[in-house]
Amino acid sequence: MMVLSNSLSGRGSLNRRLIAFVAAACLALTALASFQRWRAHDEKLAQATIETANLSRSLAQHAQDTFSAAETVLIGLQERVGVDGTGPAALERLARVMRQRVATMPQIHGLFLFDAQGRWLANSVPGAPIDLDYADRSYFRYHRDHTDAGTLVGEPVQSKVDGSWIIMVTRRLNHPDGSFAGVIDATISVDLFRDFYDRFDIGQKGVIALANDDKRILVRRPYDEGNYGRSLAGGPIFSNVQPQFDSRSFVYVSIFDGKSRLGSYNRVSGFPLLVLVGRDKAEILAGWWRDTSISAALVAGIVLIIVTLGRRLSAQIAEQERIEAQYRLLAENSTDAIICIGLDGRRSYASPSFCTMLGWPPAEMLGIAWTKIVPQDDWHIIQKGIADLGSGVPSVSLVYRYIRRDGTPIWVEMRARATALRLGDAVEMVANIRDITRQKAAEDELARVNAELEILTLTDALTGIGNRRQFDLVIQKEWTRAMRDGRPLALLMIDADCFKSYNDRCGHHMGDECLKAIAQILSTSIRRPADLAARFGGEEFAVILPNTPGPAAADIAQAMRKRLQDLGIPHDGNPNGVATISIGVAVDVPERGSVSGGLIVRADQALYHAKNGGRNRVVLAGPTDVARIAG
Fold this sequence. Notes:
The protein is α+β, with helices and mostly antiparallel strands. The chain is built from 17 helices and 22 strands. Among the domains are: about 195-285, PAS domain (Beta-Lactamase); about 330-440, Beta-Lactamase (2-Layer Sandwich), CATH 3.30.450.20; about 460-630, Reverse transcriptase/Diguanylate cyclase domain (Alpha-Beta Plaits), CATH 3.30.70.270. It has helices at about 10-85, 90-105, 140-145, 190-195, 235-240, 280-285, 285-325, 350-360, 360-365, 370-375, 380-390, 435-455, 470-485, 500-505, 510-525, 550-565, 595-610; strands spanning about 110-115, 120-125, 150-155, 155-160, 165-175, 180-190, 205-210, 215-220, 245-255, 260-270, 275-280, 335-340, 345-350, 395-405, 410-420, 430-435, 490-495, 530-535, 540-545, 580-590, 620, 625-630. The strands form four sheets. Strands 1, 2, 3, 4, 5 and 6 form a six-stranded antiparallel β-sheet that branches. A hairpin with an 8-residue loop joins β15 (about 410-420) and β16 (about 430-435). The protein is elongated, with a radius of gyration of 40 Å.
C-alpha cells in the first residue's frame, strides 16, 4: 500500500490508464480473432486446392488406364486382321475373340470391325443387326480421309445397337497398298465414367468433366445428355489451360451456371484429353463462414464482458482510493517500510520496518546516504524517480535493489509521491517500500520456464528441429517480408523415399533414427538465422529459405540429397539400397495481396514429380515452368 499525503491526485490518472487498457485489450482481441479467421480462410482454400489437384490427377490416371486398355485391344485385333485377313472363317474367329475380350474387360462396351463402306464385318454383340451403316459417323469419315495410324477418341454418340451413350476409340485399317480398308473400334460406355465419378464427394455443386483437345465435353458431372459434345471454347476453363503445364489449379466462373469454382485440370497421358475437377467456392467456405460467425459472436461477448468488468473495476479503484485516504494516518503501524526523503536525497524519517528490512539500527539509518545502500547500477533509477517528482509528476513506482548491512542484496518496490507534510514544509518524497525479493525470483523463474515452454511448443520432439506450428508461423512471416521487400522466397518440401518399407523392415526405432539423421542434415545444411528446417509431418520435412533464388535453392537441396545418400544408411526396400530423399523446390516473389498457400502447393507438386520420376532427386518448380534437376 502506498502512503498518500493530503490529496488523492493519482485517481484520475489511474482510471484513464484503466480505460486505455480496456480499449487496447478489446482492440487486440478483435484483431487477433480477425487475423486467425483470415488465415483459416487462406488455409481452407489452399487445402481445397491440393485436394482438387490430387483428385484430378487420380481421375486422369483412371481415364488413361481405360483408354489405354481399349487401345491395346484394338492394336491386337488390328494385327490379327492383318495376319488372318477378312475371310469368313477369319471373321468368325475374330468375332469370338471380340466377345472374349468384352467379357473379360468390363471397361469395354463393345468391339466392332467395319469395311471401307462402313458395313459390319465382325462385332462382339451376338444377334446385332447386320444392315446398319456407319459410314456417316464422324470418326469413320476421319479415318477414311486421313492416313495417320494413331488411335482416335471420338465424341459421345448414341449406340445404333442399344441406344446407350458411348465414346468411340477407333483405329484405321489399310490394305497392303496403304489404301483405306475400314475401321476397327472399341466403345466405352459413358456410364463407366458416370459410375466412377459418383464415388467422389465434391459437394452438391461440384463438377467433374472429361474433355478433348477440341474443347468439347465427353462426360460431365452433374449429368445432362444435352452437354455431351458441347464446346467449351471461349469459356474460362481452356483460357487457363496452358500447353507447358500438364496440370494446373485456378479459379473460374462456370459458363453453365455462373458459379465461382476452384478448379484443377490434369492432362490424360498419351491421349488428347484432360480431366477437370471444380469445387464450388461457396461450399468450400461454408464451414469457414459458419465458424467465423460463431467466432465473431464469441469475441463480441468477451469484449462486452471486458468492458463491463472494466467499469466495475474503475468504480472499485475510486472507492479504494477514498478508503486509503481515510487510513493514511495508520502508516506508522504498517508492516511495510515507510520513509520520507527530501528531494536532495536525505531521509527525514524511516519506519521501524525499514530498519528491520535493511538490518541497520534506527539511530544510524537516517545518516546513511542512499548511494551507500543502493548498488551503483541502480543509482539512475533513484535519480530519475527524484527528478520526476521534482518536475511535478504526482507519483512514481520504482523497482531496484538495496544492500543489507550484512552485504546481501534484496529487491524492493518503492511507490512514492511528493508532498508537504505540514503547511509551509519543504516538499518531500513519502514512499512505501516492500521487499519483493521472493516475488522477483519467482518472476525470473517464471520467465525462464515460459521461455523454455515457448521453445518446446515450436520444436519437434523427435528430431529437435522446428515443428509444423513453427513452420506455419515462419512461412507466413517470411511470405509477408518477401512481399514487402520484393525478394524471392524459396521452399523445399522433402520426403523420405520408401519410408514405410524402411519402418516395416527395420522397425520404428530405426525409422526414428533415420528421421533424426535427415533432420540433422537439413539443419546443418542451412546457415542463415532466417532459414528454417522443420518437420512437416510424418516422414515429410520442409525448409524455408528467404531471399534465395531458384538455382541457389536447388543447389542447397542437391547438397542435402547427396549428404544423405553419402551417409549410406542401409535401406533394402529402396532401389538405391540406402536411405534417400526426394525434394520439391518452389520459389516465388510474392505479389501484394497473395498468400503463401500457392508456394506450398507448387513445392508439393514438385515433390510429387520428384517421387514420380524415380525418387532420390530434386525437382525445381518455377512460377511458369517445372524443370527437373538430375538427382
